[in-house]
Amino acid sequence: MSLDTTASPTPSSPCILIYAARERARTFARTAFPRRKAKTVVVKSVEEFDHAIRRELIDAAIVDLGAPTDDSWVIAGRAQDFPSTAFFGLVPARAGDTPTIAKCAQLEFADVLAEHIDEEVARELVGPYTYTTRFARALHEPPPSIGLVTETQRKTWEAIIQHGGRPVTTRELASTIGVTREHLSRNFAQGRGANLKRVIDLVRLISAAELSKNPGYDVRDVAAVLGFASSSHLAVTTQRIASTRPASLSGLRTVDLIERFTQGRTRSRATIASQE
Fold first, then answer.
1. Domain 4-132 carries which CATH code?
2. Does the domain at residues 139-274 carry the CATH identifier 1.10.10.60?
3. CA 197 – CA 189 distance, rounded (Å)
């Protein structure tokens, strides 16, 4: 198996999975999503596509339908298994593409891209639909019950959600908001508010719950794409933040997780003890 993967410039840059059966589609991938703009994973078979989408968090999937094959439509059908990922068709935009576009609509694709469009336009069409963008937009305002009211807290929350549930360190967050790691750690959890690590875990668990609703993912897949060390690590986090098991996440809404979180799980015992 050969996956053509380019490095992501920042943790929050979108990860685009592209099935490219034709060289023209591969050229489109290179020009529309250069490594300074996104991380791209280019695959050439159903097996490679299935492996890639279960290996890391995919923001959007683009399916080459310029010369539809059985593989093309098998991969297109994955949109039903992974509804959290925005799927796009890539076509030459000929008159004969009408049935292909209609089928994409039936499969609930986010959109269809013409392979000759300007690369900046392509990014503008895909960008608003990426998983990370939609996730951050949905959580833009921190839940009032968590008590994140200071400027530092709100900026940090915004930096956390921009990762879509991927791992993020205190050092990375501090760099993003322009303070030292020590300053952030000292000032984030003022009074008896939630501590930073617990808030990071909450956001990651919200993402895990969203992905768990995808028929194509099992618990092990969710742990893998969100960068948990193992499914056991996800289980420990789920118990600590929401007092439940990963298998139950698919039935929980964001408001359910936040409610569970605020019932005495916002701070570690060590943090509480140090302030008493």
1. 3.40.50.2300
2. yes
3. 10
